[in-house]
Amino acid sequence: MTITRIDAEARWSDVVIHNQTLYYTGVPENLQADAYAQTANTLAQIDAILQKQGSDKTKILDATIFLANGDDFAAMNKAWDEWVVAGHAPVRCTVQARLMKAEYKVEIKIIAAV
């Protein structure tokens, strides 16, 4: 059994790959932006991570989106709908949660085939 941990630190790894399956959680870098821009920023990070590992967003199997404020659901969905490939949408769950950094409006966890 091979488990690849990319950019592993003491508390977490940026990416973990096992059985040709990639696990990743993205958080926004543009912390002063609104929920739409933070979602778009996080999705762009997901694109970059997947590309670096020889995959792409059409191979995402599952996505969990955490929103700090449920009122941002429409803004998040706008960014998501502009990004997701029609006919290749993953299973998706969106929950409202208190995120660990007050500036985060969104956090996105994915599982993808590589």
Automatic annotation (TrEMBL):
InterPro entries: RidA_CS, RutC-like_sf, YjgF/YER057c/UK114, YoaB-like. PROSITE patterns: UPF0076 (PS01094). It comes from the Bacteria. Pfam families: Ribonuc_L-PSP (PF01042). Belongs to the RutC family. This is RidA family protein. It comes from Pseudocitrobacter cyperus.
